[in-house]
Design a protein that fits this description.
The complex is a heterodimer of chains A (about 550) and B (about 110).
Chain A lengths: L5 H22 L5 H10 L2 E3 L4 E5 L5 E3 H14 L3 E4 L5 E6 L1 H13 L16 E2 L13 H12 L14 E4 L13 E7 L5 E7 L11 E8 L3 H15 L10 H8 L1 H16 L7 H10 L13 H7 L1 H10 E3 L5 E6 L10 E3 H14 L3 E4 L5 E7 L3 H10 L14 E2 L14 H14 L2 H4 L4 E4 L13 E8 L2 E8 L11 E2 L4 E2 L3 H15 L7 H8 L2 H9 L1
Parallel strand pairs in A: 6-7, 7-8, 16-17, 17-18
Antiparallel strand pairs in A: 1-2, 2-5, 3-14, 4-5, 4-13, 8-9, 9-10, 11-12, 12-15, 14-15, 18-19, 19-20, 19-21
Chain B lengths: L15 E8 L5 E4 L5 E2 L11 H14 L4 E9 L8 H8 L21
Antiparallel strand pairs in B: 1-2, 1-4, 2-3
The chains are: A alpha+beta (about 550), B alpha+beta (about 110).
Bound molecules: iron/sulfur cluster (SF4).
């Protein structure tokens, strides 16, 4: 993984000290809240319903055990003993005190972490496939691009005051696990006919109040041109992006209003202009990044027989069946640790659980963890022989829920329980759905299912791309939940279709139950997934069971 | 019954109003008390009978407490002095997924059955 250099460390230390000074001026009454607020947001500090919330950046979701330990220490000392992993592959602490935040940032800087670029109208923390570096279908580790973009965009003066926030995701494989079609820019690593590696660029995707699927801006940008090309994109956005209306300020609206052809022509023209003088990237820098993301020195074959072990223990087999994924090295696997135990808060991990995961990474998994945008934790490189030991340790830590990819593996944003922008609760809906289907014992029968819940139109819970999406709204002070069906955040990107009028807090679990009961009753067989069934029959039968049964 | 410019919430007209904010240093949810202090317990909040008088109090607080609090605004209460909107109920009770009502672990609503 990327290792800080002195430059990075000095930069982060300077930001901590700047934070302390300016925050003290606010506490002393020298600065008003209006003057202080933009500054605290630029440092990832929000004021939520009950307290301050600090959003800590985890670049492309990659953590070392030391960093995970530090997050646990912070949760223990300055929060309430837990942290919330988010769909941005970050972690947020929900119970911060203003006077403590300088110390928290200092603690983060000790392990090369910070909370910069997690808020404000800048290029946000770049996200990437959580199986980067280990997925068998990968062309190249997308984190190398993400890291390059992090270095390029951090504190870049031209990108400090964009019309609106800007999100970039990178995938290194044809199977998209980074939801690239729903980002301002999506980057897919591809190979052209000559076998040369480069980048397919999508533009103008996004969720929120105007969900749009990213369109192909370029089928192939050569490696050497990437930063220059993206600079052209940012320049055109900065120049023509709307600043008169924050709801129309994202690049997706620019592309929608002007059309892809015009936007592309502007970008290409500017690219041609700056390319002539663009300095090539330093070979030393590129080599360092490449070295930082080299595969660990993977251990050699061992005698572990996964199939035999699964036959011995049904519980282990169930867990392994959901949580263990193929690795590019046949002696290794990747593991997803579920932070979705039925009834628990999606994405939350206690201090003790964070420490267990850190220790497991250190002992068995080359000291590396990842945060997935699906709010789970990944051990990317695990020798197969350690699977059983890891499983047992996870069981003891209450982290062995065997539900990855199932109906209880729900993405849920913090919603009205924490978020000041929310219009309805999402966590409690997720908890109820998970326990409902656990009670029915139908999770495995239902099979692959992605339920995603947002507590407001901002769609941090990615509801538009849920197989079943739930959007919590406010109707005259009453929580109301709209359902969408058929969303897909993968390479087959699709925006879910709305079923019709929403349901009350009391009705929504029953509505989800009716949708799933209908699918179970009508599918051709277990091989027909929920999404496949929806694609075959459309929305009408679901409307029937929801509104006319 | 006071006529509110605030919309009816859950079909109920606000009966009283209170002034709320978050404390600058801790972020704690607080309410203006009858003695002009900030208290954690909404049932100890000053209950304004009219929205206009609460609005006046908000303006006054904004000039007096701008450096101790953030985001001063008024909320609508029901007959029993309880916040009408779900959001304000959650601010008072704390999140529904954990049982640590406010940051000090105090039971803000010990006597209430809601
Ligand atoms: S979707 Fe809305 S409620 Fe949920 S975290 Fe985002 S802003 Fe808050």
């Amino acid at each position: 993984m990327y290792h800080y250099q002195d430059f990075d460390r000095d930069f982060v230390k300077d930001r901590v000290s700047e934070f302390r000074t300016i925050t003290q001026r606010r506490i002393d009454g020298v600065l008003s809240e209006d003057e202080y607020k933009p500054f605290r947001l630029q440092n990832g500090l929000y004021l939520q319903l009950h307290a301050y919330m600090l959003q800590v950046a985890i670049p492309y979701g990659t953590l070392s055990s030391r960093q995970m330990h530090k997050l646990a220490d912070i949760a223990e000392r300055w929060d309430k003993g837990y942290g919330h992993f988010t769909t941005r592959q970050n972690i947020q602490f929900n119970w911060m005190k203003l006077a403590d935040v300088g110390d928290v940032l200092e603690a983060l800087s000790e392990v090369d972490m910070h909370a910069i670029q997690t808020s404000g109208n800048c290029i946000r923390n770049v996200t990437a496939d959580h199986f980067a570096g280990c997925a068998p279908d990968e062309i190249e580790d997308p984190r190398m691009v993400a890291e390059l973009l992090r270095q390029w965009s951090t504190a870049h003066p031209e990108f400090a005051f964009l019309p609106r926030k800007f999100k970039i995701a990178v995938s290194g494989a044809p199977n998209d696990r980074a939801v690239i079609a729903f980002h301002d820019i999506g980057i897919q690593i591809v190979q052209n006919r000559d076998g040369e590696t480069g980048y397919r660029i999508l533009i103008g995707g996004g969720l929120g109040r105007t969900p749009l699927i990213g369109q192909e801006l370029s089928a192939f940008v050569p490696k050497a041109d990437l930063l220059c090309y993206l600079e052209a994109v940012m320049h055109i956005y900065n120049r023509y992006g709307r600043r008169d209306n924050k709801y129309k300020a994202r690049i997706k609206i620019l592309v929608q209003e002007n059309g892809l052809a015009q936007t592309k022509a502007q970008i290409d023209a500017y690219f041609a202009q700056i390319k002539k003088t663009h300095r090539p990237l330093s070979e030393t820098l590129l080599r360092k990044i490449k070295d930082d993301f080299a595969l660990p020195n993977l251990s050699k074959a061992s005698a572990f027989d996964l199939e035999a072990q699964m036959a011995l223990s049904p519980a282990f087999a169930r867990w392994a069946g959901q949580s263990v994924h193929a690795h590019r090295d046949e002696n290794h696997v990747s593991i997803t640790i579920s932070l979705k135990k039925q009834g628990a808060t999606p994405g939350d991990a206690s201090t003790a659980q964070m420490r267990v995961m850190a220790e497991l990474a250190k002992a068995y998994a080359y000291d590396e963890l990842r945060v997935s945008h699906e709010q789970n934790i990944i051990l990317p490189h695990v020798p197969k022989e350690h699977l059983l030991a890891i499983y047992q340790a996870l069981q003891e830590a209450d982290l062995a829920a065997a539900n990855i990819g199932l109906v209880s593996d729900i993405i849920a944003c913090p919603g009205l329980d924490y978020c000041s922008l929310a219009t309805a609760r999402s966590i409690t809906i997720a908890q109820q759905i998970a326990t409902h289907f656990e009670g029915l014992k139908t999770e495995y029968d239902i099979g692959p299912m992605k339920i995603k819940i947002s507590g407001c139109i901002n769609a941090c819970g990615h509801h538009h791309v849920g197989h079943i999406g739930i959007l919590g709204l406010d109707r005259a002070g009453v929580e109301n939940y709209q359902i969408t069906i058929g969303g897909d955040g993968t390479q087959d990107a699709a925006i879910g279709e709305r079923t019709g009028p929403g349901f009350s807090y009391e009705q929504i679990i029953g509505a989800i139950d009716r949708i799933i009961a209908h699918y179970l009753a009508k599918r051709t067989g277990k091989d027909e997934s929920f999404l496949a069934y929806y694609k075959r029959v459309g929305i009408t039968p679901f409307k029937e069971v929801l509104y006319h049964a | 019954m006071s006529q509110s410019k605030l919309k009816t919430i859950k079909g109920v007209h606000p009966r009283y109003f209170a002034v709320t904010a978050n404390l600058l240093l801790t972020g704690d949810v607080v309410y203006l008390s009858p003695t002009g202090r900030w208290v954690w317990d909404v049932t100890h909040a000053k209950q304004f009978k009219t929205e206009t008088s609460a609005e006046e109090a908000v303006r006054e607080c904004q000039s007096l407490y701008a450096n101790q609090t953030v985001g001063i605004y008024l909320i609508a209460l029901d007959e029993a002095g309880w916040p009408l909107s779900t959001k304000e109920q959650l601010r008072t009770k704390g999140p529904s997924n954990y049982h640590h009502n406010n940051r000090n672990g105090q039971q803000l609503v010990a006597n209430r059955k809601r």
